[in-house]
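Ticket #4471: structure export looks truncated?
Reporter: QA, pipeline team
Priority: medium

Steps to reproduce: submit the single chain below to the structure queue and open the exported record.
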Amino acid sequence: MTLNHCQPYNNTKAKYLFLIAVTSLIIIAPINKIIAAPILPDFQPIIQTSGVKVYNKSGTNNKLEFVTIVNIKKARLANLIGELSYSHTPKANPSHHRSKIKKKLLTHFWQDAVQQNTTSNQAKVVLNGAFFSTKNDPTGIAFGLKVNGNLITYGYGVGNEYFGQIRTFSWHNQSNIAKIQTYMVQTFKIVQDVVGGLDITANKSANKYLPRTFVGVGDRDGDGVTETVMFYSSNYARQIDASATLRGFGAKATMMLDGGGSTGIIVDGKPLISTNRPIPHALAIYAGE
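Actual output as written to the record:
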């Protein structure tokens, strides 16, 4: 389920660039001194279409690694969510806005994405996104979510866990800008789509080989604007390997999305990393003309 755009975004690009400038001085420390293995030479493209490329690394022992590159000047990125079942905004503190979302399988999100195909945009990739509670259904979103101009939640985990390590991945398709930065409520007020996540230094069993989903942003055309979004999906990786892979593909900043049993990726209708865990949120990537 997606939500319709609720209001025009006048001067969005100018406001967003200001927001980027405000946060550009933040320095993020490396996770540790572990050296990631060389990566790029083994990645081969398996999908190349307008604005979207998917790379696969030849692995052994059933290890799967994929990198999805999205140029939002040509392609489109969209948030998908399950059915909203609860929404509440306390009058005394609107920043505590909360919504709960029903979960569904990633394969069902793929069907939702295909239903939104147009003559100019065709669904190519769907993958898992935001952190959430695996114990509840419907569930809240841990670190915030805004879908096509509609605030879902600022996140039940903000102020309660991972202090100083919460980040946001945000983008605006019309302005062709994507950004990863420190969590700020202002980001949710300005930008069209926002997904909260964690810094790569947050310890989610950092040095264990587990399923991982990371996102990165980069400036591949060198114009000073980060228009390229990169996703890393693997069934067996450390946090540093996920981040280093995206850096190897040119990411200037990276962020951790939900992983473990939530990690999954579907390309052209085919699950490349399968998951049976129902999730409340997914990211859909549409190729352009």
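Status: closed, not a bug. The export was complete when the record was re-opened. Leaving a note from the reviewer for reference: The CA atoms of residues 216 and 253 lie 6 Å apart.
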